[in-house]
Amino acid sequence: MRKRFESTHPSFSSSRRKLLKASSVLAAVPFILPRSLYATGLQSEVNVQKFYSGDWIAAFKQAFSAADIVSVPADLVCDNINTAIFMPEGKTLHVAGGLKGNGKGRFVLQDGCQVLGEKGGRFNNITLDVRGSDCTIKGIEMSGFVPVTQIYIGGKEKRTMRNLVIDQIKVHDANYAILRQGFHNRMENVKITNGHFSHLQGDAIEWNVAINDHNLLISDHVIENIDCTNGKINWGIGIGLAGSTYDNEYPEDQAVKNFVVANITGSNCRQLIHVENGKHFVIRNIKARNINHTFSQKAGIDNATIAIYGCDNFVIDNVDMKQSAGFLIGYGVIKGKYLSIPQNFKLNDIELDNTNMQYKSRGIQISSGNATSFVAITNVKMKRATLEVHNKPQHLFLRNVDVMQYADAGPALKLNFDLRKDVRGRFMAKNDTLLSLANVRAVNEKGDSSVDIDRVDHQHVNTNRLNFVLPTTVK
What InterPro entries does the database record attribute to this sequence (predicted)? Predict the structure, then answer.
């Protein structure tokens, strides 16, 4: 499970792949309507109130049988939604008013279904359960602490679902906002965009055990005030994605892959972005403020703006952090066993300014390695923070790096390549190793050189414009 950082080499571990019990209940609901009984859309749009006679659930079912579009007008609140309402294929729920439930109610979206909101269109303690292709959820507000999640994407039917759009939603005062359990089926071409997530106990977006999914875009979101205070372990992340069991060979069928997380503004949480056992992904254009350990204190998760565990072939680009914990890029660990190490990645255009931060906090901490691998760290500027690199990838490049750390907190740059007596040393590259450093400056608050480099035994060493001297290369 995710643990707080407590040591120089933390025991990173997998946690996001633990399925939530409540989602299993959602997945167990059967599809009860055969295709032959789906509504034919005799009318184009109806007001659900037309069918109301004391039971809103019955009213919605009748309305969906009568028209392709069912509307909830602005002056109407439909309450006591306390069981599943299956939307027949191709139907649209148009919400300008309100819908309320007790946490057990949900609308199940099948192929071609849409839930569209106008200003004021809102759901409280009702889950939207996506079970089909070509579905859209747009323009709605959701809240309520009773259900585990506001939007659930999963089910146990082994099928492929395509073309999901979730756009312009606002979720607040809730547990999870969006939860995907992906072990049983496949999602293709998913776009989750332009959301606002605030005051949540769980995650804003959790994409869990999503080993079959392809082409996922999560972009243009504001995430703020994510604070798990209910004692739940592993809750309280902005955006989390996870594959299945760690494997240092990084097989495609075990990883969450082919996704982009972009244009995220986050504040006031313990961890903003989290990826476990992922590959072929990009994280870019992130702005973070006040990401620190005072949030979700009992959730058992590391404090970091971006946390990466056991991943391959990824890019993190253009990240601006202030008064925040930085990056944690480390091993894939299960029950204390180190199973994989990050490899083949690039960090570029990273800024971290903790000059005015009141807490001691992580800067950028990286563990990387493997026999054929590279790590490139370029255009990094950090104030009152440390850049740490542990273990040894085959090729390591540092370009245009400027770090400052206060002397009483330790060195500004730490390069820990010597793991000969450490069990994690098995991940070290040993052949044709390259260390290339250019325009690297590491200083304390007085401008004096501030580095800690234990051993350099790379076969090839290239340096240019350093404000420190490397240890004598060991051949």
Answer: Colanic_acid_synth_WcaM, Pectin_lyase_fold/virulence
What is d(CA 306, CA 176) in angstroms, rounded to the nearest whole number?
A: 19
**Measured CA distances, 24 to 33, 154, 190, 451, 468 (Å):** 21, 9, 22, 50, 56
Please state, in angstroms and rounded to a whole number, the distance separating the CA atoms of residues 324 and 354. Answer: 7
Specify whether the CB–CB gap between 412 and 383 falls below 8 A.
Answer: no
Token reading at 357: 């931060």
Across the chain, mean pLDDT equals 92
Q: Does residue 15 have a pLDDT over 80?
A: no
Q: Closest by alpha carbon to 210, among 231, 233, 239, 237?
A: 239
Residue 85 has pLDDT above 60, yes or no: yes
Q: Are 444 and 418 in contact (CB under 8 A)?
A: no
CATH topology of domain 21-466: Pectate Lyase C-like (2.160.20)
pLDDT in tens, 108-155: 999 999 999 998 999 999 999 999 999 999 999 999 999 999 999 988
Write out the two tokens for 200: 């949540």
Closest CA to 215 of 242, 191, 182, 239: 191
Look at strands 337-340 and 332-334 and give their pairing: antiparallel
Would you kindly state where each structural domain of the chain is located, as residue ranges? 21-466
Q: Which residues pair with 449 in a beta bridge?
A: 443
Between 93 and 17, the more confident residue is 93
Q: What are phi and psi of 415, to 5 degrees?
A: -120, 105
**pLDDT tens digit string along 190-203?**
999 999 999 999 99
Phi-psi label, residue 250: left if phi above 0, alpha if psi -120 to 50, beta otherwise = left
Type and span of the H or E element at 59: helix 56-66
- Would you state the structure tokens that stand for residue 248, as one six-digit string? 């240092």
Number of Cβ within 10 Å of residue 162's Cβ equals 16
- What does each C-alpha distance from 437 to 256, 308, 377 come to in angstroms? 32, 24, 10
Q: 458 pLDDT exceeds 60?
A: yes
Whether 398 and 377 have beta carbons less than 8 Å apart is answered as yes
- Spatial separation of the C-alpha atoms in residues 354 and 358, rounded to whole Å: 9
CA 355 – CA 382 distance, rounded (Å): 9
Q: One-letter amino acid identity for 298?
A: K
How do 278-291 and 434-443 pair as beta strands? unpaired
CB 395 within 8 A of CB 423: no
Percent of the chain with pLDDT over 70: 91
Residues 184/157, Cβ–Cβ less than 8 Å: yes
Q: What is the model's pLDDT at position 42?
A: 56
